[in-house]
Structures are given as structure tokens and as C-alpha cells.
Specification:
Rossmann fold; alpha/beta; nine-stranded mixed β-sheet; 481 residues; 21% strand; Dihydrodipicolinate Reductase, domain 2; globular; single chain
Length: 481
């Protein structure tokens, strides 16, 4: 199968930090279809060779083990081309069409690795130039919109140019091997399904924690914040995969229909419940990795007195028969105590304990990063005596070790799926808009809340109010157990 893959924003951070290295890994693994061309477009004027040299320099910053040798890079770079393009000029889209028409590839993937405010302009120009035929796919990088209205506007324009089956709204968390394994865990095994419900599960926690601060991304982050950056997309997508009913098949729309049902069943927020069930925070100076680090307001290009949240913790429920009454706790933040992404399924305690001493509840931990695997926490008697107190033990599965030869990175998987036309791991427009609808009451409440975010010390797990949020129900975050 021949393909052309075009990166709009070809000199941007996303392209050289994530997309090009992911494509190289697909090339190295022999998974990239043969007879392909990769085209980067941007405003700078440079020939192919100069762009390839520029890209080679950028590849030196790729983590060790994923850097190409000189010989590997030369073979990969032979697929890479560059064209200058002003995204506001219609004739530049006509020239792009001519370039793509030189060999009439079987598939054309147009990846919008640009600022989201350019999405509508680019899509309209692509439509006007006739670059929206049935073999064309458009990939839209998040964040898609700033709120419900802007997301709907982008989707209206996208749908006016492309069919829904041509639109690939990317959420790179869905490409992580461990996230893909959520489907296999739930619907490829008989072990957990009888327990995957309110009668057996006490609460579910989703944590997406980062130890780094905003760094040089101050201007972008200050206009976005943790709720838009992580909760509205990544965390909610994980929640839907944990809570969804079994789809009728592995078809993309069958899966996305079930995810949409979960989003529609989420308990809606009111001003009263936002004030009670949502905690927002902002890090101040502290210590990370043994070094002193500045607070958010001291980071470069962050406006003085900004109320942008760098931490969010919230409580919600899925209001259906399977999950009624089970709290779902979501949290994310910058400058937390560790880089950690995981889902914790806390099971209910035994109804009548017969062993002395206390006991910890059984727990299934689905690890997303930095480790990738499953940990099942059980109780056992160390000496085998029924008269001694039980101790927790763990069954730990490391997917990176178990499937080392077959592991594929998130962007590598999603780029290959976009080329192949597989929509299973991409977000449909109605899913995305429903997620925005759910978070919008929180955004509206914060607009009128002059108190701003709660302060927390960098290198900790966020404001104390986040612990109180969970403790109110008699639970605790996993690191506090």
C-alpha cells in the first residue's frame, strides 16, 4: 500500500519530539508500509536536504535506545520531504495537491500538528483545494477546542469538509499499550467480569501525575490548565474504558457507542457540587528530584497572579445499574511527588473478617506509566497459620518484560492506525463534545470564583483538600493507604 503522510507544523515541537521519532520506530520495526512518503510543511524556506539535516540534529535529543544510527537515519530520511507552506494562502494548498498528485498514493494522511486555532482554517482550505477525497484522512491533535462552543465549531467545519470516518481525533493515551490492554483485560478474560460492578467494587481512582513543572510551556499552559489539558480528554477516556459495557464487536463505532453511553451517564455538576466535589490547586516553590524548583507563578512567561490550575482532583459517579453509588476519583497535576499514571480498582472488603487484626482490601492496579503492567494485591498468611494476622502480597505482571519484542509506542501505534484507516483508538466527535459538556459547569464555576486555586508545595501530592475529598467517603488515595 502506498501512502503520503503530511505534517502541518513540520518544524514544531510535536513533530520532531513525538511524531517523527514514532515514525522512525515504525520504520525500524518494519511496520511502516512500503512505498511511503513523509512530507513536513511549515513557513520556513529550505530544501529537502536541509530539513533532513535539521531533523537529524533534533533526533540527537531522542532518548537513548531509540536514536537511529547514521545508516538507519539515512534510510529513513530518504522518505522525508519538505515544502514551504503559508497556511493562509489558497495557492499553497493547490501546490500541495499537485505534489500529492505526482504519484496518486493509495492513502493520504494529513496530520494537523498545529495550534488548534488553525484547524478550521486549514480544513476549509483543504476542502476548497479538493484535498478531501475518500482516500484522504485528517488527524486532529488535542486540545480540540477550548470549551464546548469552540469544540462544536471545529467539528462543524471538519464535518463540512470530511466525512466522520475520515476524521481521526487523536488522544495519545489511547495508543499506550497498557490502555489498549484495558479492553483485553475486561473483554478477553472471564476472571474479572463477574466482579466488575457495584456489588464488588468500592471505588475507582484514576491518577495522571507529572513530576515536572510547566517549563517553557507557560503561555500555552496558562491558557489551558489541568482540567482542559488532562481531565477533559485523557482521564475521561480512561474512565469510559473502565466503566463501559461490552461492545457487540471490536468495530470502532461499537466501541465508541459504549464509551459515549458512559459519558452521558456521568453525574452532572452543579455549582454546589463543583464547590464540594472538585479541588483545584496550583504549585508553589518546593523540591523535586532533590533540587529546589520555582512555583508556577515564577515560571517563565506565566502572568502574575494567574488563577490557572496545575492540579485537579474530583469525585464523580456513573449513574447506571452497573456503577450506581461507586465513586470515581480523578486527579492530575504538575510538580507532584512522582511521575505516575495508573488506575486503581479498590474492591469491597470481605463481609465478615475471621482473621485477627485489620486487613487491606483487595486491589487491582493498572499501571500506565512509567511502568506498564498489572498488579493484583491480595491477603495471605505469612506462616500459613489461621491464627495469625494476614499480610498483603502482590501478583505483579510487567507487560514490558512479558511482551518486550512486540511493544509499540503510543504515537507509533496511532500513526500506523491512521495510515491503515483503523478508528478504534480515535475519538468520535459526539464523544468529545459530551466530555466538554460535562466539564463546562466546572469551568463556568471557576470563572466566577475569585478565591482561585489552592496552593500546594511542589514535590507533594497536591493540596490537602484532595485527600479530604476522598476521606469524606471513608477512602484514601493509594499512596496514603
Amino acid at each position: 500500500m502506498s501512502f503520503d503522510l503530511v505534517f502541518f507544523g513540520g518544524t514544531g515541537d510535536l513533530t520532531w519530539r513525538k511524531l517523527m521519532p514514532a515514525l522512525f520506530q515504525a520504520f525500524r520495526h518494519g511496520k511502516l508500509p512500503e512505498n511511503g512518503r513523509i512530507l513536513a510543511v511549515a513557513r520556513d524556506e529550505m530544501p529537502d536536504e536541509r530539513y533532513r539535516e535539521w531533523l537529524k540534529e533534533r533526533f540527537r535529543e531522542v532518548e537513548e535506545g531509540k536514536r537511529p544510527s547514521d545508516e538507519e537515519f539515512e534510510r529513513f530520511a530518504s522518505l522525508v520531504h519538505y515544502r514551504r507552506m503559508d497556511l493562509s494562502q489558497p495557492d499553497h494548498y493547490s501546490r500541495l495537491k499537485d505534489w500529492l498528485g505526482e504519484r496518486n498514493a493509495d492513502t493520504v494522511v494529513l496530520y494537523l500538528a498545529t495550534s488548534p486555532h488553525l484547524f478550521t482554517q486549514i480544513c476549509e482550505q483543504l476542502g476548497a483545494a479538493g484535498l478531501n477525497g475518500p482516500k484522504v484522512r485528517v488527524v486532529l491533535e488535542k486540545p480540540l477546542g477550548h470549551d464546548l462552543a469552540s469544540a462544536q465549531q471545529i467539528n462543524r467545519v471538519v464535518r463540512s469538509v470530511f466525512d466522520e470516518t475520515q476524521a481521526f481525533r487523536i488522544d495519545h493515551y489511547l495508543g499506550k499499550p497498557s490502555v489498549q490492554n484495558l479492553m483485553a483485560l475486561r473483554f478477553g478474560n472471564a476472571l474479572f467480569e463477574p466482579l466488575w460492578r457495584r456489588e464488588s467494587i468500592s471505588n475507582i481512582q484514576i491518577t495522571l501525575a507529572e513530576s515536572l513543572g510547566v517549563g517553557t510551556r507557560g503561555p500555552f499552559y496558562d491558557s489551558t490548565g489541568a482540567l482542559r489539558d488532562m481531565i477533559q480528554n485523557h482521564a475521561l477516556q480512561l474512565l469510559t474504558m473502565i466503566a463501559m459495557e461490552a461492545p457487540a464487536s471490536n468495530d470502532a463505532d461499537a466501541i465508541r457507542d459504549e464509551k459515549l453511553k458512559v459519558l452521558r451517564a456521568l453525574k452532572p455538576f452543579t455549582p454546589e457540587t463543583v464547590s464540594r466535589d472538585v479541588v483545584r490547586g496550583q504549585y508553589r516553590a518546593g523540591t523535586a528530584g532533590g533540587k529546589s524548583v520555582p512555583g508556577y507563578l515564577e515560571e517563565g512567561k506565566v502572568p502574575p497572579g494567574s488563577h490557572t490550575e496545575t492540579f485537579v482532583a474530583l469525585r464523580t459517579e456513573v449513574q447506571n445499574w452497573r456503577w450506581a453509588g461507586v465513586p470515581f476519583y480523578l486527579r492530575t497535576g504538575k510538580r507532584l511527588a512522582a511521575r505516575d499514571a495508573q488506575i486503581v480498582i479498590n474492591f469491597r472488603p470481605v463481609p465478615h473478617p475471621i482473621f485477627p487484626g485489620g486487613s487491606c482490601p483487595n486491589r487491582l492496579i493498572i499501571k500506565l506509566q512509567p511502568e506498564d503492567g498489572l498488579e493484583l494485591q491480595l491477603m495471605a498468611a505469612k506462616g500459613g497459620s489461621s491464627t495469625e494476622a494476614l499480610s498483603p502480597v502482590s501478583l505483579d505482571l510487567d507487560f514490558d518484560k512479558a511482551f518486550a519484542a512486540d511493544r509499540v509506542g503510543a504515537y507509533e501505534r496511532l500513526l500506523l492506525d491512521a495510515i491503515a484507516g483503523r478508528l478504534n483508538l480515535f475519538v468520535r466527535s459526539d464523544e468529545q463534545e459530551q466530555a466538554w459538556k460535562w466539564v463546562e459547569p466546572i469551568l463556568n464555576y471557576w470563572k466566577n470564583d475569585s478565591t482561585g486555586p489552592r496552593s500546594y508545595v511542589a514535590g507533594t501530592w497536591g493540596p490537602p483538600a484532595a485527600s479530604a475529598l476522598v476521606a469524606r467517603d471513608g477512602h484514601s488515595w493509594i499512596e496514603e493507604c
